[in-house]
Amino acid sequence: MTCRRWLIFVLAVSTQASASIVSIPEGYAEYDSVSRTSIQLALAPNLVANELIVVEGFVLAGASAASLTDNLGLSFHEVSCSPRSYSAGNILQVWWAQTGSSSGPDTLVMSWTGAVTFSSLSVVGYTGTDESSPVDVCGAAFGSSTAPSVVINTTSANEVLYGAIAAEVSGAVMTPGASFVLREYPRDAGGFGNGILTEDRVASASGAHAVGCNLSVSGPWGVIALGIVEAVDAGPGGLDGGAGDAGAVDAGGDEGTGDGGSHPSGPLMVGCSCTELPGFGFLPVAAAFVQLLTRRKRAPRASLRGSRCATCSPRRCR
After folding, report:
1. Residue 214's closest CA among 247, 259, 178?
2. In whole angstroms, what is the distance from residue 82 CA to residue 95 CA?
3. Could you tell me the pTM of the whole model?
4. What does DSSP say about strands 149-154 and 107-127: parallel, antiparallel, or unpaired?
């Protein structure tokens, strides 16, 4: 007699889960009316491990493009569309660095040649970003109007749109673009309108996105925008084992057992007639059940002996 019992596996199958990016404004510094060749900023709060920090720097016309260093010895990467020179030589720059295993207090120093009377530095940190390649795309533009803006084309969903915007407009007030959140806004204390604004928002879909702000008075501006990629983790368990394997219950009423860990390589064989589940990676639970119910494959009797079909006893399959 052939045993036709089947096992129904209840699986918590993991899917590719996107981690949420958290923004951490780390502070800003700005100097005006004092001729200088550097500016420094002590970050607050302290940096944490695996944090991405994005730095916006601005110097008035007459200075060279700046360089950036810090106390922790992080590796700063200037984005491909930086530096951006606008309005007769004003310079806007953006760098990024990942902390990796480093954490704690840090101080940034931006330096340049050619003393100028206004400079500014602004830093925003992010956790939950991709650790291998956090910056997807970079775009820059300059012009003169009340609506600084640049369009960037992101390649994945849920990227953070980061905007670094500088303006030199007497008496102007800068406000974030639609749906953007203001992160930092250092302004010229003398009221001359020299200032930089840092903003961001999440773009739920990939494609073309405008990054910009509003100026209360028309004037020259520069914009650098980034698409920041979020990390992707493996979810709370699944086919490689761990908490995702919930065990098995025999449809005939006998209690089965779960492995609570990784499955051996090759097809997963269950039941006396042995159902085959080809390696299907991370599929939704529903798809796993469809595979189980529609792709039954009778294995030769010999394959049931000493095979991975451990729930099949010789007493019940003969």
Report:
1. 178
2. 8
3. 0.69
4. unpaired
- In angstroms, the first-to-last Cα distance of the chain is 6
pLDDT in tens, 84-119: 888 889 999 999 999 999 999 999 999 999 999 889
Nearest Cα to Cα of residue 283 among 30, 93, 12, 65: 12
- Asked if 277 contacts 245 with a C-beta cutoff of 8 angstroms, the reply is no
Distances (CA, A) of 85 to 53, 60, 93, 116: 23, 10, 9, 15
Distance CA 173, CA 294 (A): 64
Q: Which residue has the tokens 């589940």?
A: 277
C-alpha 253/C-alpha 256 separation (Å) is: 9
Three-state DSSP state, 290? helix
Buried b (16+ CB within 10 A) or exposed e, 224-247: bbbbbbbbeeeeebbbeeeebbee
Query: DSSP characters for 240-282?
Result: TBGGGEEEEEETTS-B-----SPPPSS-EEETTTTEEE----S
How confident is the prediction for the chain on average, in pLDDT? 75
pLDDT tens, residue by residue, 224-266: 999 999 998 644 433 233 333 333 333 333 333 333 333 333 3
Query: What distance lies between CA 161 and its chain's CA centroid?
Result: 11
Structure tokens that stand for 143 in this block: 């012009």
Q: Which amino acid makes up residue 92?
A: L
- Of 169, 98, 163, nearest to 128 by C-alpha is 98
DSSP state of 71: S
Residue in the block written with tokens 């702000």: 213
Phi and psi at 123, nearest 5°, equal -130, 135
CA distance 286 to 294: 12
Consecutive H or E run containing 212: strand 207-215
* Cβ–Cβ under 8 Å, residues 288 and 301: no
Q: How many CB atoms lie within 10 A of CB 175?
A: 13
